[in-house]
Description:
- This protein is 31% helix and 24% strand.
- By secondary structure, the protein is α/β, with parallel strands linked by helices.
Amino acid sequence: MENLQIKTFAQYKKAYKKSVKDPETFWEEIANTFTWHKKWDRTLEWDFRKPEVKWFEGGKLNITENCLDRHLEKLGNKTAIIWEPNDPDEESRYISYRQLFVKVSHFANVLKNNGIKKGDKVCIYMPMIPELAIAMLACARIGAVHSIVFAGFSSAAIARRINDSECKMLITANEVYRGSKKVNLKEICDKALEDTPSVESVIVYRRTVEPTPMKEGRDRFWFDELQKVDKDCPAEVMDAEDMLFILYTSGSTGKPKGMVHTTGGYMVGTTYTFQNVFQLEKNDVYWCTADIGWITGHSYIIYGPLAAGATTVMFEGIPSYPDYGRFWEICEKLKVTHFYTAPTAIRSLAKQPLKFVEKHDLSSLKVLGSVGEPINEEAWHWYNDNIGKGNCPVVDTWWQTETGAIMISPLAGITPTRPTFATLPLPGVQPALMDDNGEEITNLNEKAEGRLAIKFPWPSIARTIYGDHQRYKEVYFSTYENKYFTGDGSYRDATGNYRITGRVDDIVIVSGHNLGTATIENAIDEHEGVVESAVVGYPHDVKGNALYAFVILYDQTEPSDQLRKEIRDLVSSTVGPIAKPEKIQFVKSLPKTRSGKIMRRILRKIASNDTSNLGDTSTLLNPEVVDDIIGGAVITK
Length: 637
Ligand code: PRX
């Protein structure tokens, strides 16, 4: 790929132009730099109206051969993964490409020995330990489809995801360390498994020495299983369009969407963007602080970096343990060159005294990255000044679970940056800014604001929502004719730089976590004292957004702080602790349109304490409730 690496802004412009004029040739050249068993028959087939997208169909490959086998000759002894434990006194683990290759092949045989075959779905619910990476790559090695569920989700959320894709196996760990706490994952899984008929076996990695109750005939320990199989596992030959993984993301309805990513295009897209956005050099140490349970971890801790032959850091812990200097201590210790994190982490660390940063030598850093939500100006400058010391380009990368790979971002050291702007589309990405009438705003030389769509397919786009192609069509391809709709609002300056302004649908990003308000409302409504609820986001200076729940109670239910606690606990156990509403207001009714829809726009304004101009309320069926709600609002500022 080296000759395709962009090194100057002029090369970027040239590559971009070519990618628009002749996308197929552009991506073919990149795809040709990977290892294929057989070349593809057709480069691209697409129709956003159906919708259908296929890249490199007929091409045969295995992504793990591209992440592991092909590096063995030249990079076999290079460190693939550096693992940094939660406890700074526990030893870091360095895993070379050769060792990772052996571990993945060995564990792949465990999967086979437990009846997992090509096409079977495997749920992985694990902490940030190397075995999580090994488990996911082992699935890919034998053509099984991994569905990783973030290990902060509740039993009910795991069960819902397992059942949606009928996973045959669950891989987990007995416990997880998270700062000064220990969480029993196996217990959470056991509860989930009470209601998941498709799961035949459970593999448990022992992260701690605590006794772990095991269910006879179903549960097996990771190490015991390894003893039963050999270490050699040839890779399953996959079609480029075979499913690689399912990853659930929140939607505007209560049901999570299982985004389906396939093999060839995803590999090409993540690797190309990884190399060009971050501009890694041979001996660099790259650290993305995301959890592998999210798309950022899939694409930019595992697949992209490993396919590119990079050294990637995995961190088990949290930024505040044992103190707020932990990230910077790790940067110093591992001589991290590329550091990629989320604005919410930056904002919470920026609130701490600077001594936590100053006591560490950060001179190894070359590039800083941001992802997951808009980065505000203050956080951008704090990051640039105090972490990058003004010497490290900040790449603000905009993308989504659905896009698989970075879409709009500066290329480090190449694209001129502008605070809070994700700047320019990467080669192969054709954004369209849409106005209120659904027309594209085509003049790139005038600033404009609208909604962001994409008008041409890129290789790593999700192909469908698992089991619900109709929903895929409705959510992404029905808003604008023949275009993919992102759900984000965006501003474009007069030089074509994009700033993402936030979601325009019923998804709220809290601390970088994408949450569907409908899912939370469903959870609240399950409380026996609750008639109905509406959840909206409001600006929060650390979390980006926080949640505000308006709740209608039955007449006989007494509003109280105890009830607020019960509601929060209910949300925590059905969705996960991250989804707990910060504020809960009990109301008599909710503002509704004549067709019965809750007018969330008004609730958002009330939650943000911005009630001077509520806009047009004439279509409300019950305008009088607005003043009542304002009168009783839990003031947020
Ligand atoms: O609203 C955008 C926001 O995160 C959403 C996607 O969330 P998710 O699928 O969880 O993936 C997050 C990691 C890629 C987007 O629709 N978002 C992501 N990156 C940025 C962003 N908003 C502003 N600036 C970004 N750099």
